[in-house]
Amino acid sequence: MNKIYPYLVFILALTFSNCTKDLEDLNVNPNASTTVVPGYMFTKAQLDAVSNNYIGAAYLTIGGSMQQTATYKEVPAAGDKYFNETYSYTSWEAYSTAVIEIQKVMDAVAEDPEQTNLLSIARIWKVFIFHRLTDLYGDIPYFESGLGLNGTYSPKYDEQSVVYADLLKELDEAAVALNADLPSYGNADLIYGGDIAKWRKFAYSLMLRLGMRLTNVDIAAAESWVRKAIEGGVVLADVDLARIAYVDGSQISQRNFIASGLLNTDYLNQQAVDNIEGGKLAETFINHLKNTNDPRLNVISVVRVRNATGTFVPDTTSSLQMGMPNARYNSFPENFATFSEPNPNTILRFDAPHLVLTPTEMYTLLAEASLRGWYDTDAAELYTQAVQSAMRQWALFGSYAEIAQNRIDFYLSGNPFASSGTFEDKLEQLYTHLWVSLFLQDEYEIFANWRRTGYPILTPVNYPGNLTGGTVPRRFVVPLTEENYNGENFREAVQRQGGTNALTSRVWWDQ
Fold first, then answer.
1. What pLDDT tens digit does each residue of the chain (511 aa) get?
2. Neighbour count for residue 263 (Cβ, 10 Å)
């Protein structure tokens, strides 16, 4: 035994060593590249940024609280009844997807002067990712985010005012650095195909958006950034509209994520009387469209009616459209089938485009700038342009959705700009119209503009057991896991923002 033992130890040690090596090899994906390909990673960052937590955040939380959607059920009633904060947690997952992805792109191209455009566009897209995060949560990890591979596992939270200052600085520098003589992303860029001129307009458009966000906290900075954005040139022409095209194919990732999300939840079975999440379009939203004779009603909304064979078919007749009241029901309403829902021929198409940033938003912001004396163009004309572009953009959803010019003119004649009204009257008209125009495309901006301006005017609900005391939510709740994994920085940020991590606490610019 004494002679055998040393050999046994040697054999066991060798075996353990080989097993360990085998396990390490098994843990490596042979089909994965260890080198970042900037174009591929940028494509992924674009897709993940726009689609992150869509159902939980945009549809159930913001859509309900902004009274464009409603539900009779309690579990999905994050916005409808202010009853569930957990859906807001998941937007934080952008840190594990889009944030890391765009940081990898930037790291891969930062040292190569020939790839200045790739870096500059990535910086602009990083602003898009982070401005959405900070607008939802307030103080967030920013300067130390996306650095886990470098050993930063507990990033500090930066004050939103500091984050905003850097976001605006990044847009300014990146827009100037764009160079038409250098290569770009080409087809890897799903929005503009690498078009430098359009990305410059996109950068200044984000600058206009963020600059106007400062009106209640730093009016001088707001004016300065708005003027700079206008001088740089923003997205105003239809051809410059930022959008991602999707296709109706077998690959789920190629389908429009909004249509996929809604069809996999409430509208999975068009012949079912009930919906999975109990959702419909909201009474506030539908009534506004009907009361203003808005031609988008027939493009956006349908009521399912039974035909002679007993089959449900979509009907766009205006008089039939009826929205479901927010927080009215807690069990299946007998008239549930009579409430309006999204049009399957437009919004629920897998090949519908996603509109990332539109001229109608820019015209609206410019109209406000005009009202404030920061832009020398008549606000009434800018409002008209905002309406025209908002109506025209539906043509991107197919000929079925195209709105004829005579219907646009009829809407404008019935809803002229409130030129003789007060500043607030005009602001209300501008942002109530934008509330309609951004429906199911950018609920995040609807939520941000409502918090900053107070428009559209919404009547809060007070459902029993709600989490806000019967007030419309003001922000998202940082996931409670942060207290476990990054507790010291998390608690410091909470105290800095009023001491509560709740739907009722406010971000810095929401004064």
1. 344 333 333 333 444 444 444 555 555 566 556 688 999 999 999 999 999 999 999 999 999 999 999 999 999 999 999 999 999 999 999 999 999 999 999 999 999 999 999 999 999 999 999 999 999 999 999 999 977 666 677 899 999 999 999 999 999 999 999 999 999 999 999 999 999 999 999 999 999 999 999 999 999 999 999 999 999 999 999 999 999 999 998 888 899 999 999 999 999 888 889 999 999 999 999 999 999 999 999 999 999 999 999 899 999 999 999 999 999 999 999 999 999 999 999 999 999 999 999 999 999 999 999 999 999 999 999 999 999 999 999 999 999 999 999 999 999 999 999 999 999 999 999 999 999 999 999 999 999 999 999 999 999 999 999 999 999 999 999 999 999 999 999 999 999 999 999 999 999 999 9
2. 19
Pair 355, 243: CB distance under 8 Å:
yes
Other residues' Cβ atoms within 10 Å of the Cβ of residue 295: 19
| Exposure string over 80-117, b if 16+ CB within 10 A, otherwise e | bbbbbbebbbbbbebbebbbbbbbbbbbbbeeeeebbb
- The tokens for 432 are 């109530």
User: Residue type for 510, please?
Assistant: D
Q: Which letter does DSSP use for residue 289 in this model? A: H
Alpha helices in 316-442 (DSSP H): 359-371, 379-392, 405-414, 423-437
Q: Find the distance separating the first CA and the last CA of the chain, reported in whole Å.
A: 82
DSSP secondary structure string for all residues of 196-235: HHHHHHHHHHHHHHHHHTTTTT-HHHHHHHHHHHHHH---
Using a 10 angstrom Cβ sphere, with 0-12 exposed, 13-18 middle and 19 or more buried, the burial of residue 244 is: middle
- The strand pairing partners of 69, in sequence order, are 281
* Amino acid found at 321: Q
